[in-house]
Amino acid sequence: MAMRLLSPSTPPPLFPSPGPKAPASVSASSSSYLSVRLRRARAASAASGAAASGGSDRDGGRFEGEAMSGAFDRGLAEIARKVPLFEPAADGELAAAAGERPLPINLELWLYRVKVHTRKFEFPEAEKLLDKCISFWPEDGRPYVALGKLFSKQSRYDKARAVYERGCQATQGENPYIWQCWAVLESKGGNIRRARELFDAATVADAKHIAAWHGWAILEIKQGNIKKARNLLGKALKYCGGNEYIYQTLALLEAKAERFEQARTLFEQATQSNPKSCASWLAWAQVEMRAGNNTMARNLFEKAVQASPKNRFSWHVWALFEANEGNIDSARKLLKIGHAVNPKDPVILQSLALLEYNFSSANVARVLFRKASQIDPRHQPVWIAWGWMEWKEGNARTARALYQRALSVNSTNECAARCLQAWGVLEQRAGNYTAARRLLRSSLNINSQSEVTWMTWAALEEEQGDPVRAEEIRNLYFQQRTEVVDDASWVMGFLDIIDPALDSVKKLLNLDQPSGPTRQDDVKSTARSSAARESSETSAAVGSDTPGLTSNDAGNNGREATRTPTNDFDLDRFIKKRLALDPAELDAVLEGSDPRGVVSQRRKQRLPRKPLPVP
Description:
With 615 residues, this protein is an all-alpha fold. The protein is built from 32 helices and no strands.
C-alpha cells in the first residue's frame, strides 16, 4: 500500500551521512528544514492532544493518507520532546554553563562591556563580568587591573588590594601592570614605603614598563627626592627609549630650577617624539611664560589647541595667560570656546565667573557659578571661589554657607585646607578671632606645608598685639617644613642620552609655586606686609584650578607688545573648520546650555548621513 508521507511540493530532508562532510549550503538548508519540521511537530503534538480530549468524531471523515501523516507528525513530536532546539547563547554563556572555557574573543567582549557598565555607573554588572573573566582566564592580568580600579572608584580599597594581590599570585608576579596599579593605590593612600616596594616589583617584572618607572619618579618628586627621581627617569630612558612624558617631566624639573635652556631642549625632544601631545605644548608654553617670552608662549598655546582642539586644558590655560596679560576680551572668548567644546567641565565656568566678577558684574558671575555647581556639585573649588566672591561683596552669611557646602563634599583634602584658610580669613576680618584661629589650625592639620596659612596666622597674632606668639608661629613653620634639595650635577653629560609623564596636567602645569624653600628673612618680611594679607585672601578662592585670575594681575600686566601673535593663526577660521562653531554664537551657546543635560552644539550640527549606494 502506497502512502504519502511528505507533501510533493516540499523537497525531502537531507540527513547527514557517515561519509564526507556535506557542503555548508546543504547542511544549512537541511538544519533549517528540520527546525521547521520540529516546530510543526510540536504544534501538531499539542493539537493532537487537544483533539484527543475533544473526541474522535471530528476525524471520522478524513481519508487514510492524512491519518498516516498525523501519525508521522506524532512521531516527530516525540523526537522533538527528546531533542531540544538549538538556540545559541550569547558571549560563550553556553560553554560557561557546560564548564568549558569560552573562546578568547569572549574575554575581549566582556572587558568591553565592563567599560560600558563602568561609564554608566553600573558597578554590580561590571563586577559580575570581571569575576567571570577571572574564573575562566586567571592567567590574564587585565581583569584584575579593571576590577581593582573598579573597587577604587567605589572607595573599596581593601577589596582592591585583595584583587591586586590575588592577581599577582595568579600571574606568578610577571605582570607589571598589576604591580603598578597596586603601587599607585598605596601611594594615594599614603603608604609610601609599600608603594616603593611595589614599583620596584613592577620594574623587576618588566624593565621596559615605562609607566612604572615614571610613577615611581613622580612619587619621589612629591616626597622631595629630586635626585632619586632623576635617577629613575634616566633608567626609564635607558630601558624604554624616548618617550614624550619622560622628556616632559625632566623639562619641568629643569624649569622649576630655572634652568630654562635645558628645559627648552627637553621640550623640543618631547614634541618631536609626539607632535600631537597637547600636554607637552602646554607645559612648554607655561615655562616660556614664566621666563617672560610671552610671544613664544602664545605661539605654543596655538600649537597646543591645534594638536588637540577638544582638550579643555589647552583653552583654559591659554585664557588664563591672556587674562594675566590684560587681554580680557581674548580670555573671555577662549573660555567660551572651551565651554562650548567641553560643556560638562565646571572649571572653565569657574574661571569665566571670576573673570566676569573682576571685569563685569557680580550678578553675571553668580549665574556662572550656579551653572558650574549644577554641572558638578562635588567640585569643591567652585563653592570656594563662589564663597570668596560673596565675602568680597559683603555677604558673609552666604559665604559661610558656601564654604560649609564645600567642606561637606570632602573635609580632608587639599581643597578643604584652602577652604578652611579662606574661612579663617573671613572670621578674622569679621572680628571672630577665636573661630579664625580654630579654622586656620584645622587647615594646617590637613596641609602643614602651606606657607600662606602659617603667615596668615602669624599676621592675626600681630594684629592682636602679640608679636612674640607671631614669631613662634613663624619659627614653627620653618622647623616643620619639608626641605627640597635640588642638585644640578646631573646636567653635564646627561642631556646626550635622555630621551616621564604627567602625574596630572593640572598639578604639573602649576609652576607658580616655588620648588625649593624660601628664605626665612624674605618670608618674614612678606608676612608683615599688606600684600601677603591680600594674597592670603585670594589664594584660597582661586586655588589650583584657576591660577592668576585676580584683578591686580590682570590690571598690571597689560603689555601692548605681546598682544598680537606673530604667526598667521586665525582663531575664528580654526574653530569654524575644526569645531563647527560660529564665533558669533558663542554667547548664545553659553546662555542656552542646560547644566543638567548639556549637549555640545557641535553634535547638533552633524551632517546627515549619505544613503548607501544601490548595487
